[in-house]
Amino acid sequence: MNKTLTTLTSLLFLSGLASAQQPQHLLSTAPAGTIASTSNIHVDPWTASKVQHAYGLPGTKAKAKGTMVIDTAGLTFSGIASRYTIPWADTVAVSNGVERVEMWGTTGRIVRMAIPNGGGLAAAGVMHHKVNELTVEFRDQRGAYHGAVFFLPGNDATHVLDTYTRAIQPTQQHPDLVVLPSEPALACQAAPASHGVLVATPSWNNAQVPAAYRAMVYEHIVDRIQRVEGVGHVYRAGETGAQPVCPQYTISISIVSFKPGNQVTRAMIGPAGFFVGTTQMVFNATIRDSSGRLNSTQEIKATLRGEGESKNITDGVAKKIAKSYANTTKQFEKTTLTAKADSPLSH
Question: Taking a C-beta distance cutoff of 8 angstroms, is the pair 212, 311 a contact?
Fold first, then answer.
């Protein structure tokens, strides 16, 4: 019996090792651009079931499950508590990708921990599955940038991408050069909004970063900045409206390096997973104020070790940027108040 278990464990480990060595990221991006009119667009209605919203869709909870419908109107995700449509005219880019993650999340890790004699590490080699990602980048009615990530079964993500590529023809001559404006489009005629913050378009030029990571980094930064005490409205890149966009502060980030890591590898090798297969991101984060007196740049590093899902690093980056913003602006405002108090004009 023991010999049989040993043989089975060895087979599980070898099977898992072979799977873990497969390519972990396949990225294909449809042409980006804006659509001048949807009058000439026709898309045969198609529905994908068992879709999970990972993050980023407005008004939709992370990990919400539902269905996705694509038709002439655009792409619609419907869950139990929400429904949101992204019109083709507002779509900036559609991308797909593949990544391997551990099955059943935390529950799967608990199950493996209960397997004796090191069997849990061997089981990690086969207790994982391929996640098919679909990333949709789009503008809302105010022109503000959003990035939503979904997990779809089978080849459904590829089907959506292919439909978008064939049916939606960008009107711009060089669609790959489309860049969302990172600064306010309108000049401020009045004082900037107190504690309004613009999260500018990130620069990804220095590293190859999959679209799902790019979208989730941006969305998590917006979310984390909104939670900082005292912050007013958080503006997104490209956002306009009836009133001029006048943020008091602007946050700009640029990628320095990215290492995708491998959750399956980290799970298979136990404690060594804190050093092997890690996921790493390094950014330069710049915080400026509207007067130009504040211009602070810090290096932000985030590393995901152990058995956590690799995309969790995107929120780790956002937490550090939000903390840096809170500390930097607090010190700047304290220094500014002290300077005003010491000014002869104040006496």
Answer: yes
Sorted by where each begins, the domain ranges of the chain are: 20-178, 180-347
Query: What is the secondary structure of 319-330 as a DSSP string?
Result: HHHHHHHHHHHH
Query: Span 273-302, mean pLDDT?
Result: 86
**Spatial distance between the Cα atoms of 256 and 269, rounded to a whole number of angstroms:** 28
Structure token digits, residue 105: 């999340």
How high is the mean pLDDT of the chain?
74
Reduced 3-state DSSP string for 105-156: HHHHHHHHHCCCCCHHHHHHCCCEEEEEEEEEEEECCCCCEEEEEEEECCCH
Written as one string, the DSSP assignment of 273-320 is GGTSS-EEEEEEEEEEETTSS-EEEEEEEEEE-TTS-GGGHHHHHHHH
The 10s digit of each residue's pLDDT in 157-185 is: 999 999 888 877 443 333 333 344 444 44
What torsion, rounded to 10 degrees, do the Cα atoms 150, 152, 158, 162 define?
-60
CA dist 274 and 192 (Å) reads 45
| DSSP class per residue in 192-219 | PEEEEEEEPPPB-TTS---HHHHHHHHH
Report residue 200 as tokens.
Answer: 């500018």
Element (H, E) at 165: helix 156-167
Indicate the fold that domain 20-178 takes in CATH.
PH-domain like (2.30.29)
Nearest residue to 294 via CA among 241, 264, 239, 335: 335
Q: Kindly report, residue by residue over 82-91, the tens digit of the pLDDT.
A: 999 999 989 9
State whether the Cα torsion 296-253-200-331 is positive or negative.
Answer: negative
Q: Which CATH architecture has domain 180-347?
A: 2-Layer Sandwich (3.30)
What digits encode the pLDDT tens for the residues 14-70? 333 333 333 333 333 444 444 444 557 788 999 999 999 999 999 999 999 999 999
Identify the three-state secondary structure at position 19: helix
Tokens 């590393």, residue? 303
| Cβ atoms 236, 201 nearer than 8 A | no
pLDDT digits 0-9 by tens, 185-211: 444 555 566 789 999 999 999 999 989
